[in-house]
Specification:
heterodimer, A: alpha+beta, Chemotaxis protein chec, 8-stranded antiparallel sheet, globular, B: alpha/beta
Chain lengths: 201, 124
């Protein structure tokens, strides 16, 4: 049961609005102007997750950070935010005004900031589809290639949604990717909510 | 009245159209464009009375399209509808010549307010 092109367009607009609000919060927090780029959205079945991450990250010469955060409610699942080490370092340095940073400082800074992005994005998506989510505390890990993919993802979830994001703070190009893993029930609820929204137009 | 809606999302264009006050939608011609460049070209072709413009679009962004529209017609009535509501974004579009900036999603109440203001200004 896939989203139709119109439903996908609708969901993309919901994500755009949600991500825009997240960007505004970040910009206010950091007292900086962030440029928001149009997210590119794709939906796949969970069995393609390993293949996708392999293709995208396995031959990368650098490691990256994975921030994961579960969310509960009628719309439940898990958020994975992938950010390369270079982007994470740029972000942490920018936020800490170029001071020399220990690895732990970088991890803390990146996790705190990405937590704002992920929590705000998913809370707003839930709001637009007329439900509520409760986000859990995120965790951050340094990863290489497809080592992030564990069997628990394919056991717990049925679909994943790729939201490719770019945030620019002044001259810093911070590139990250948000993956939303959804249970089958959450996906069905999402499709229904989008259908209701479109019927109301 | 001619109304031009410039937004890359079909759903967003549908939402804007469905939010128009009845007294406007029943008496207006509504045109659409799917990106900033198409929006500028369409503006030059039809000279609309009001433009609803998104900011994050492919080919030409809303900022670039706004700049070109104002360069072509300094009195253009452009209303920016965007998810980006950062004060600096609002300031930038205002400086470029937009009449209003409204945060998405736009509501029927927003639209009634916008058109009342437009009609009020036209009556002066």
């Amino acid at each position: 049961m896939n989203l139709t092109p119109l439903e996908l367009d609708c969901f993309q607009e919901i994500v755009n609005m949600s991500y825009g609000e997240a960007t505004s919060i970040i910009a206010e927090t950091m007292d900086a102007f962030a440029t928001l780029h149009v997210p590119n959205i794709e939906v796949y079945t969970i069995d393609k997750l390993k293949e996708y991450v392999n293709l995208k990250y396995d031959d990368s010469s650098q490691s990256f950070y994975l921030i994961s955060q579960m969310f509960n409610g009628k719309f439940d699942g898990e958020l994975l935010f992938l950010i390369t080490q270079d982007s994470a370092n740029n972000l942490a340095k920018y936020l800490n005004r170029d001071e020399d940073l220990e690895r732990e400082d970088i991890l803390d800074t990146v996790m705190e900031l990405i937590n704002v992005v992920t929590s705000s994005t998913i809370t707003n998506i839930a709001k637009y589809i007329n439900t509520e989510v409760y986000t859990m505390r995120p965790t951050i890990d340094e990863m290489e290639g497809s080592s992030i993919i564990t069997n628990s993802y394919s056991q717990n979830y049925s679909k994943f949604i790729i939201i490719s994001t770019v945030m620019e703070f002044k001259d810093q190009n911070i590139v990250g990717e948000l993956l939303i893993l959804l249970t089958e029930d959450a996906y069905v609820n999402l499709k229904e909510a989008i259908g209701d929204f479109l019927n109301g137009l | 009245m001619k109304i031009l809606i410039v937004d890359d999302s079909m759903v967003s264009r549908m939402t804007i159209k469905s939010s128009l006050p009845i007294f406007i939608s029943q008496t207006s011609e509504i045109f659409e464009a799917k990106d900033g460049q198409e929006g500028v070209d369409k503006y030059k072709e039809i000279s609309p009375d009001v433009v609803f413009l998104d900011l994050t679009m492919p080919i030409l962004t809303g900022y670039e399209a706004l700049e070109q529209i104002i360069e072509f017609d300094k009195d253009a009535k452009v209303i920016v509808l965007s998810a980006d509501s950062q004060p600096k974004a609002v300031q930038r579009v205002t400086e470029l010549g937009a009449k209003w900036h409204k945060k998405k999603p736009v509501t029927k109440e927003d639209m009634v307010y916008i058109f009342k203001e437009i009609l009020k200004k036209e009556a002066k």
